[in-house]
């Protein structure tokens, strides 16, 4: 190694070197956006060596603990310890070993093994996420329906709303609201906020209806008017409906349809029948006075 300079380069302006090595790499479009660009496998090899050392130290410590437990049992036998003590020590050791062993069992099926079809839901190995349902469009039921299903089902949306409410309250200066530190207070304040918000919406809606009207348009029509009613019925030469066997009883129990959304049995301008009740030479009219104009006054009772 060379000894350090007596005077630095920034004072002598000699031997000035760049602070860092700048490489001009000509990369393609895919190479610039490659998430593994610049990754050094040796970094992960170091991680593996560290974990191997930790695992080896854990095994040695476990072996020493077992040796101590075995030595204690032999001493207990020499001093005339009972069988119950030996059984208790053995069960304690087995339970502790089983607890450690259960932590390393991989019982859950990997997401990419749910459906081996390459055209199924996309699996991202970097984040280990599969957002869509791997069994979408299939009759097979699965316990896993994708990360989006878990994210947007149950109380997930409610929790997300309360968390956003806590953030916004903190930005407004209310530092006492914290979703993780005080979830009960946050839930209560969020409920009060929603009640006030819904109350303001109802007040605004009532004011608009009071000023402009139109409340009758908010009423939902009867279900009979929203459903499509279409039946195929055959009639005989005598004009009676021809029903298959077993349909007579159903026909008798058939529910009557409700009134339509249009006004019925309205007789304008003193008419006794509705317009369209009479037809002649390709034209519709009133059957009471045989008038063909809809706005014509009824002349049936005029002498």
Arithmetic mean of pLDDT:
76
* Helicity range: 40-55%
Q: What separation lies between the terminal Cα atoms?
A: 133 Å
**What is the gyration radius calculated from CA atoms?**
42 Å
SSE order, one letter for each helix or strand? HHHHHHHHEEHEE
User: Treating each run of at least 4 consecutive H or I residues as one helix, how many helices?
Assistant: 9
SSE-based structural type: mainly alpha
* Spatial order of strands in the largest sheet: 1-2
Tell me the fraction of residues in β-strands, as a range: under 5%
User: Runs with pLDDT <50, length 5+?
Assistant: 72-104
Global shape: elongated
The counted number of beta strands is 4
| Oligomer classification | single chain
Biggest sheet details: 2 strands, antiparallel
Provide a descriptive summary of the structure in words.
The chain contains 9 helices and 4 strands. A hairpin with a 2-residue loop joins strand 3 (278-280) and strand 4. With 303 residues, the protein is mainly alpha-helical. The strands form 2 sheets. A two-stranded antiparallel ribbon has the order 1-2. The chain has a two-stranded antiparallel sheet with strand order 3-4. It has helices at residues 9-12, 29-32, 41-78, 83-102, 147-151, 156-171, 183-212, 223-226, 247-252, and strands at residues 234-235, 241-242, 278-280, 283-285. The termini are far apart. The chain is 42% helix and 3% strand. Among the domains are: 41-76 and 83-105, no CATH class; 108-153, no CATH class; 155-209; 270-303, no CATH class. This is mRNA splicing protein. It comes from Linderina macrospora.
């Amino acid at each position: 190694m060379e000894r350090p300079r007596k005077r630095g380069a920034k004072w002598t302006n000699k031997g000035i070197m760049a602070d860092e090595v700048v490489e001009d790499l000509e990369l393609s479009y895919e190479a610039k956006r490659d998430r593994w660009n610049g990754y050094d496998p040796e970094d992960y090899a170091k991680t593996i060596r560290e974990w191997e050392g930790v695992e080896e130290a854990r095994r040695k410590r476990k072996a020493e603990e077992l040796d101590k437990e075995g030595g204690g049992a032999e001493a207990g036998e020499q001093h005339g310890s009972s069988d119950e003590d030996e059984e208790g020590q053995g069960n304690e050791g087995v339970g502790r070993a089983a607890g450690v062993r259960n932590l390393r069992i991989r019982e859950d099926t990997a997401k990419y093994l749910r459906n081996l079809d390459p055209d199924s839901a996309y699996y991202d190995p970097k984040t280990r996420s599969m957002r869509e349902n791997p069994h979408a469009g299939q009759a097979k039921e699965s316990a896993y329906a994708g990360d989006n299903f878990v994210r947007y089902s149950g109380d997930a949306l409610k929790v997300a709303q309360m968390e956003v409410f806590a953030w916004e309250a903190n930005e407004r200066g209310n530092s006492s609201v914290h979703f993780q530190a005080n979830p009960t207070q946050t839930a209560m304040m969020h409920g009060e906020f929603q009640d006030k918000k819904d109350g303001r919406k109802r007040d605004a809606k009532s004011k608009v209806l009071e000023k402009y009207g139109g409340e009758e348009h908010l009423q939902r029509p009867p279900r009979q008017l929203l459903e499509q009613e279409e039946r195929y019925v055959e009639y005989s030469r005598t004009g009676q409906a021809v029903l298959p066997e077993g349909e007579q009883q159903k026909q008798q129990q058939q529910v009557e349809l409700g009134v339509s959304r249009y006004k019925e049995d309205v007789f304008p301008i003193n008419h006794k029948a509705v317009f369209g009740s009479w037809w002649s030479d390709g034209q519709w009219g009133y059957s009471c006075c045989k008038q063909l104009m809809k706005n014509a006054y009824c002349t049936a009772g005029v002498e």
